[in-house]
């Protein structure tokens, strides 16, 4: 059985982008290894899980595959016996800093759009 990314982030299956982003930021800050020097190994593992969950659920294509086939479907490249074959791994996990930058850029773009609409 694969990981439950919704459970990892503590969101419902129908969570929208804003809910995902909020949950990710909260958990990433909580489990960042620099904030947990006394329990670094656990924090690193949790931080990796949180980042992985956000990486998948924030990408519409990956989320669709995940919802249909679970983590195993992602590893298989799109479902059982998917185009990449069993065992292929197509994740391109980014650092938390890269994800934070993306989240910040989206927020800035949304603010600019709102200001232009006024």
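^ structure tokens above, recovered residues below v
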């Amino acid at each position: 059985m694969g990981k439950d990314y919704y459970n990892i982030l503590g969101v419902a299956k129908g969570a929208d982008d804003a809910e995902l982003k909020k949950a990710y930021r909260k958990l990433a800050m909580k489990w960042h290894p620099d904030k947990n020097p006394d329990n670094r190994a656990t924090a690193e593992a949790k931080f990796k899980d949180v980042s992985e969950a956000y990486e998948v659920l924030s990408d519409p294509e990956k989320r669709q595959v995940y919802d249909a086939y679970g983590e195993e479907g992602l590893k298989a490249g799109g479902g059982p016996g998917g185009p990449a074959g069993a065992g292929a791994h197509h994740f391109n996990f980014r650092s938390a800093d890269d994800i934070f930058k993306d989240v910040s850029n989206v927020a800035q773009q949304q603010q600019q759009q709102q200001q232009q609409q006024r």
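Residues 5-93 form a domain with the Helix Hairpins fold (CATH 1.10.287.110).
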